[in-house]
Write the structure tokens for this entry.
Amino acid sequence: MPRAIALCVVAVLTVAAGCNAPTPEPPEDPPEVALGERLFLETRFAQFFAVRAAGVNDPLATGDPVMDILETTGVPRPGPFAGKSMNCRQCHLVDESPEPATTGLRTYADFARRSPIPDRGDGHNRTPRNSPGLVNANVKRGVPLFLHFDGQFATAADLVEGTLTGRNFGWLPNEEATARAHIARVMREDDGSDPLARPCRGLPYATLLRGIAAEIPTACRLPEGYRIDVAAATDGDLLHAVAGLVSAYMETLTFARDAGDGYVGSPYDRFLILNGLPRQPEPGEGGIAYARRLRVALEALTAPKLVDNPGVLMFAHHAQDFVFGPAALAGLRIFLAEPAAATASASELARGGIGNCIACHAPPEFTDFGFHNNGVAQAEYDGVHGPGAFAALAAVLWASKLGSAAPETGDDWLIISFAVAIIGGTGLNGGIISAMGLFMGSAIFMLIKHGLVEVKANPYYANSFLGLLILLAIVVDRVRELYSDKQKDG
Ligand code: HEC
Ligand code: HEC
């Protein structure tokens, strides 16, 4: 399945993606990816299952009501996992939709404004945000990786552990250890009777994770790095192993690219190719700069060719029309259009057609991978994850300020501390330090930093600019000193 996704994908932002008919059958998934997908679908890790099922291999008498339907922005649809308890796929759908022709491939999002969560009587019944698509969520980027819009997780494995033992799976904030023990129990006691185990000859998790039994088919034999002896492992180690496998699966969820790293899978990608439009940034070119270059090239086309020959190009694995028609082209023009200045003028607003979407959704990834505060209150977050949970997010301190946090966070603090002091009038070889000077120095520093953002300077050069500024401050300081020396002399 993930390989199918890799080859047949749906681009963000309503432009359906996919692959064309001649694409050869995808190679089989590596064992860790196949097992990771099975764990992504596994419904027995949920709290509902833990308290209601007689044994880990016994089916539930009645499923968790939260699974009965898929909430949408309109009429609810039947839940693909009705009768079971929570799994990752319930909120991250592929094409489980009963009407795939109209809804298409979900790229691992659901249909809800906010995803319903199991009822635990704590007053919470929805996730704080909507579930995003997961294709390309782990793709390499120019900024540090963080997952969830509050920067809750810095790795996919952390996310899996946190989610499996968290509120989305029905576990209250103080039930983490119980959750871990339950998940470990499912892994140890599974007997392979679940239909999900069929592709691996109905072998139990314990056998597959150990990875040595002769009966394990090659397609299911885990590489050594993923193996673990579930009988000897601690609950924590087991959860870790599960997280590693689910992460391996999620890393394969990427949009199709060609040998030159250009995206090729979607009708939009085909449109670019068909018209000889630039398909990706040049080395060193930022996303927005590329988007502008694309806009200019698109404007220069007198008769853009559309992708509207169904039957020639089609999705190989998904029942969805492979079309980039006039409406999509009109939408693309709006998407790429920017106002002449930072704020749109009255006449621009009256004329319309300026989406300015590339400010945050620059192609070809259609995201800036940045941190955006989209209005979830700390109180709401704490309600779901437990009191103090938001404050405990180490990432938030810096992510909220800088856009992201990572081990290299703080690397540029040195230059900042120099800049503030020197701009504030403290000489490089020491001297008089004035509190007012430091204050003014930091104020000027912030003004300049924000100014750099306003003029859309490349953030990677910000430090070079600050370096130049320090030099300038030193020169000015030196000139001032010479000048005052002269005055004293004179
Ligand atoms: C009850 C619904 C629900 C379940 C179950 C669920 N998720 Fe999510 N998932 C969400 C929501 C909502 C978000 C967005 C959270 C946010 O930004 O705060 C999300 C975000 C994510 C992201 C981050 C994507 C990004 O670009 O930042 C990943 C990865 C992910 N989920 C994987 C998983 C995995 C793996 C599981 C199973 C262990 C899982 N999810 C179970 C609802 C769910
Ligand atoms: C100021 C930044 C910003 C601008 C400008 C912006 N967006 Fe977004 N957009 C976001 C953020 C942040 C999210 C994620 C929020 C969420 O999912 O809760 C988002 C999410 C989306 C999504 C959902 C994506 C998904 O994977 O679920 C779509 C579609 C979208 N934007 C389209 C647009 C369009 C079209 C425009 C231009 C008209 C636009 N955006 C302009 C920041 C922006």
About this structure: Residues 267-359 form one domain.
